[in-house]
Amino acid sequence: MAYRLDSKIAALSAGAMIVALGAVPTAAEAETEILFNTYYSQKHPIMRGTAKPFAEGVAKATNGRVKVKFPAATLASPKKQWGMLTGGIADATSGSISWIRKRVKLTEIAALPFMVPSARGASIALWRTHVKFFDAKNEYKGVKLLSLYGTSGSQLHNNKRAIRKLADFKGLKVRTSGSGVAVFKALGATPVKLSGPKIFENFSKGVVDGVATPYVAVGAFKIVRYVKFTTDLPGSYYSSIFYVAMNQKKWDGLSKADQAAIAGVAGENLARVSGEVWDAGAAGVIKKLKAGGAQIETVAPAFAEVIRKKIAFVEQDWIKEAGKRGVDGKAALAYFRQQAAANK
Questions:
Q1: Rounded distance, CA 293 to CA 211, Å?
Q2: What does the alpha-carbon distance between residue 61 and residue 309 come to, in Å, rounded to a whole number?
Q3: Which of 40, 146, 151, 230 has its Cβ near the most Cβ atoms within 10 Å?
Q4: How far is C-alpha 250 from the chain's CA centre?
């Protein structure tokens, strides 16, 4: 996806990282380079809000002993990021958990419906929940996990009608992905799988009636002017989650001091900064939608409860999967929700 972020959002990410790190000594000559692969454009929020702030933070925190570099072109396709990392082709990456779902199940807690009061809150909550409940289960064995974060959550944008009751979903052809397929099928819509580059053509020409995606993507896909109705579900219908990780051997080769410095830049700090960039991007697109005449409605509490009951199986399935992996899913969900609400 080719997301666009303006300079204000970029400044937010860089500024937040600098504040988090505080004053830093003048950088010395770099002793170690970390090759951070990315398959995103330079204006993608993951580059602006995650990869670049991480690189800047690492250089400052290690006093220039470690520098993060980016390749001129991606070293592997999105779905091959994990293999690329474990194979030592790159030293670090940020990838979607969509491509490692057979391996990673617990992290999907943040992708469940109703879990995202804000990208900031959900990202902080995800990292804290991982540390408290998931880390010991070693789902990321084979790499050094540095951080986790998510988007502002997917909302429903369509050109047919306002969605105010369950029957309004019926027959609506909705482009969605991941757990959104099960969600919208259960609500009565017709899920349609399309790659990002095909969204504009299919939505603008009416091949699909709606798109379930984060607000930032609505702007990036250039479909703002085609959206007539946005149905905003508090907590979102589902979300997309990303990890930041390093090759384990590369990590082990760093000094203890540099490991500690990088861990300080990453973890919750990087999750927070990443989430804030997604939130800022969402706010900008909402303004554009309103200016273009789109009708944005927040789902009423009573209707939200109807939706919750209709798609409750998604959460229940996750709880069962968590139990198989030795995690109290209900306790993890309660903790996540408390942390997300407290940090939104």
A1: 17
A2: 47
A3: 151
A4: 25
Q: Where residue 12 falls among pLDDT bands split at 50, 70, 90?
A: very low
Closest CA to 65 of 19, 16, 23, 25: 25
CA distances from 221 to 199, 214, 290 (A): 7, 11, 17
Residues 6+ away with beta carbon under 8 Å from 147: 50, 127, 243, 244, 266, 267, 268, 270, 271, 274
Q: Is the pLDDT of residue 244 over 70?
A: yes
- Listed by start position, the domains of the chain span 7-113+121-150+244-282, 155-237+284-342
Alpha helices (runs of H) in the chain, residue ranges in sequence order: 7-21, 45-46, 52-61, 81-86, 119-129, 180-187, 199-204, 215-220, 248-252, 256-265, 267-291, 301-310, 312-324, 329-342
Q: How many Cβ atoms from other residues are within 10 Å of residue 170's Cβ?
A: 11
CA 145 to chain centre: 15
Does the pLDDT of residue 91 top 70, yes or no? yes
Q: Are 151 and 238 in contact (CB under 8 A)?
A: no
DSSP one-letter code for 289:
H
Q: Which residues pair with 144 in a beta bridge?
A: 246
Token pair for 241 = 């989650």
DSSP secondary structure string for all residues of 39-87? -S-TTSHHIIIIIHHHHHHHHHHTTTSEEEE--SS-SS-GGGHHHHHHT
For the stretch 26-51, pLDDT in tens is 444 448 999 999 988 888 889 989 99
- For the domain spanning 7-113+121-150+244-282, the CATH number is 3.40.190.170
Q: Could you give the CA distance from residue 75 to residue 37 in angstroms, rounded to a whole number?
A: 7
Tokens of 343: 């940090």
Longest Cα–Cα distance of the chain, Å, equals 64
CATH superfamily of the domain spanning 155-237+284-342: Bacterial extracellular solute-binding protein, family 7 (3.40.190.170)
> Which run of H or E residues covers position 232?
strand 229-232
